[in-house]
What we know:
The complex is a heterodimer. Chain A has a single domain (about 25-100), classed as Arc Repressor Mutant, subunit A, CATH 1.10.10.1100. In chain A, about 30% of the residues lie in helices and about 5% in strands. Chain A has 4 helices and 2 strands. Chain A has helices at about 30-40, 45-55, 65-75, 100; strands at about 25, 30. By secondary structure, chain B is α/β, with parallel strands linked by helices. In chain B, strands 1, 2, 3, 4, 5, 6 and 19 form a 7-stranded mixed sheet that branches. A 7-stranded antiparallel sheet of chain B has the order 20-23-24-27-26-25-28. In chain B, helix 1 (about 15-25) runs parallel beside helix 2 (about 60-75), helix 3 (about 135-145) runs parallel beside helix 4 and helix 4 packs parallel to helix 5. The N and C termini of chain B lie far apart (about 75 Å). Classes of the chains: A mainly alpha, B alpha/beta. The interface of A and B includes residues 22, 63 and 103 of A. The structure holds flavin-adenine dinucleotide and iron/sulfur cluster (2 copies).
Amino acid sequence: xxxIIGRALKKDDFVEMPxxxxxxxxxxxxxKGEIRRAIYEGMYTMNEIKRYLRVGMGLCQGQTCNxxxxxxxxxxxxxxxKDIEIPIPRSPARPIAMKAYADDGYMx
Amino acid sequence: xxxxxxxxxxxxxxxxxxxxxxASCGMSVIVFDENTRPGGQLFKQIHKFFGSKEHKAKERxxxxxxxxxxxxxxxxxxxxxxxxxMGIFRNKEISVMKNDSVKHFKGNSIVIATGASExxxxxxxxxxxxxxxxxxxxxxMNIHGIKPGNRVLMVGSGNVGLVVGYQLxxxxxxxxxxxDAAPRVGGYGVHAAKLARIGVPFYMSHTIKxxxxxxxxxxxxxxxxxxxxKPVSGSEKTLEVDTICIAVGLSPMSQLVRxxxxxxxxxxxxxxxxxxxxxxxxxxxxxIYAAGDVAGIEEASSAMIQGKIAGAAAxxxxxxxxxxxFKARQKKLENSLLQLREGMFGHKSTxxxxxxxxxxxxxxxxxxxxYISDTELSHYPGIPTEDDLKDGLxxxxxxxxNIPCNPCQDACPKGCIKVGDNITNLPSIETSVxxxxxxxxxVSCSGQAIFLxxxxxxxxxxxxxxxxxxxxxxxxxxxxxxxxxxGNVVSKAEVISIKKTPVMDETAVLTMKVPSNLTMKARxxxxxxxxxxxx
Lengths: 108, 535
Ligand SMILES: Cc1cc2nc3c(=O)[nH]c(=O)nc-3n(C[C@H](O)[C@H](O)[C@H](O)COP(=O)(O)OP(=O)(O)OC[C@H]3O[C@@H](n4cnc5c(N)ncnc54)[C@H](O)[C@@H]3O)c2cc1C
Ligand code: SF4
Ligand code: SF4
């Protein structure tokens, strides 16, 4: 991250918005309001929001919602989109059945 | 664990081209794709492509994909389908999931060509069944033969929105409107004009406010936006639609690039997060290349060239071709890539272009409503003069923006059409050469922008020939309506010939008889409904 974000950044109270009920992460059914609230609760990075709410942890692995979540975080924190990093990707890059994951032919 | 000299991830145009280039230099290559069908985006593209002959222009997308696959397989490339690459680890090792098990592979070089995914816009009701991505609509129609809905709203006027909108109409849907928050149509004017003349209304500076319906889409409310993208209250319109198709851009699928640890940057011009690459497509990790949409959203034509460059570079790295040989190949490819990026939609373009490279003023009406107005038309070099029209049969080329495309020039056996060396030039007509009326230009034009006009065919009547790609194909003698460029009925029309031969690749040339004074207005034939009386 090019900017260090102070933990005390967001001081005002959370105010509900008329479009807070709109779902942003379809896979995990997380709304805009939940994401905004998480920011007010101190989750300033997308990695934190992901772990807090499971946004981007569903079927599409954030391919659809990362951009949308990023825009919300940018707006709430008054930052440039460029200064917000999307969550760190991890293997597996796609959802996978546990039985398939367990059948890893690495040693064979 | 198996080892290959080159691992390619993604069997789209970029990946297959990289594999072909590397295999032709002698490398052992394996390609993985998570799809059941190879070809990436190409396999659902049923329209004819732009570009020049070397970019496979005027071929239909899925055929380009098929040919690439054949070429790759002939060269001994192993193509593994239904195989999802899940991770890239140190020392160019990847893990692949196939049939409920995971296997690991190692490559000396890797080309990441994973393409892009569609963007979404959240609005009230966007998770209702009936709101779909344009790509999904294409998959339903062109792969599975399913009509996505009956009455559709298209959100987004880029090439994807325009092309998919046209395909929806071909599939039998009614396209109620095409909207875009931007003040200008984002895609090629020729693609927009194809929709406008069938009667599709364009609403620029409009966005979607909400989708109506309880458990499925039953309507949509659109609203105008001002210069600062704020909705203008009171400007809402309700559209009776059952499907809302979203085509608001693509984002590079860069997870694997980031997993590999390549340096990336967030570049809105390239569609989002892309790997930092050198001119050969090599990322910050030596031996890992990125090509195609994953390295920046462009087109299949440029994806193929980027793939080839990456494939050649990997071959050079591993000593299959010399530095000199590589430079020679790369130079040729680079030139071809530069050509594609010229023009008002290319890399150097801005949304503020007002004139063509030749200095003609752009059609405002085309950028706002999708059609060229009568008063603007005569400016352009592809439009015959009054005198030319008196002379007999002439081609009319309504292609008025600098796009990288020239099959019209190659198509004409007589030399009536000229684009010149610069592929983005506007096509012009050579009226000193007599047109034979063969219709090859009409069917070769990927933008369906070429018409043949004969003003005086019989007393008071003239002929207009146009490209026709709808089924059922009308019969000779059918009576219907002639529509103008904005889809309004201007007169009744009689089909006097239908020409469709194998070389025309499924595009028919329909010739209709209309009043002489309407030959420069009538641009589409609408068959009459069954039992309908036309007066
Ligand atoms: C409606 C529409 C119309 C278009 N019209 C034109 C046109 O007229 N002319 C033109 O030049 N271009 C056109 N394009 C653009 C063109 O289709 C794309 O630019 C091009 O396909 C990009 O090629 P690519 O190889 O980079 O990616 P893709 O074609 O997207 O291929 C990527 C492949 O990678 C695979 N993949 C992704 N991740 C993984 C993974 N983890 N493991 C395994 N496989 C994976 C995918 O399954 C896919 O098959 C159009 C696009 C659309 C949507
Ligand atoms: S109809 Fe045939 S001869 Fe006439 S301009 Fe077209 S390609 Fe050339
Ligand atoms: S007129 Fe020529 S340059 Fe224009 S879209 Fe048609 S084929 Fe391409």
